[in-house]
């Protein structure tokens, strides 16, 4: 285990099993579309999840990316989100599945749903690897959830603090001293890009 990690919340094996299961559910749902499914990955946190997931989906698909940045407000928690890299794919009349790392305050996905909805896809669904039910708002709908987790700041399997730890093969709780120096003891604001 990395020395900056307090405990492992989800093991490598636990992730692999659940991601395979999600891939199978999605395959069943999207099998037989008349055009390729469009998978949109929200950079950077969802890259690892997406890469593992699509290899359990033996259906025709196109990949697109979207860059969203969360920024800190008064509380140092994510207080808003903005699109910093526009969608590179035409999604009109296409079936779209958005892949995001974590549903926390919901600011990121609310913005994405609004923006993509305007582009008139045939359908728009979302998968998140993690959700913090204690914080997730009721107005942001996600169709696929990997794991519900406690309200702790986690890293690994794509999720970062200050751009680090994305390559850990598990989801772990970051030791408070690793972010206390920069944020006066409060948890860090999430950053997607
Ligand atoms: P939101 O608060 O739902 O908009 O989430 C914003 C972004 O913050 C997520 O996409 C993540 O990139 C990041 N984030 C939220 N919670 C965590 C966490 O516990 N660890 C790492 N990143 C997080
Ligand atoms: Mg993110």
Overall description:
The protein is of the alpha/beta class. Helix 1 packs across helix 2. The longest helix has 19 residues. The chain starts with a strand and ends in a 10-residue tail after the last helix. The structure holds inosinic acid (IMP) and magnesium ion. The site of magnesium ion has 6 residues, from strand 5.
Compact summary:
This protein has helices at residues 12-30, 47-54, 107-118, 177-183, and strands spanning 5-10, 37-43, 61-72, 78-85, 95-103, 123-131, 144-148, 154-155, 171-174. The strands form two sheets. A six-stranded mixed sheet has the order 4-3-2-5-6-7, with helices on both faces. A three-stranded antiparallel sheet has the order 1-9-8. It is α/β, with parallel strands linked by helices and 193 residues long.
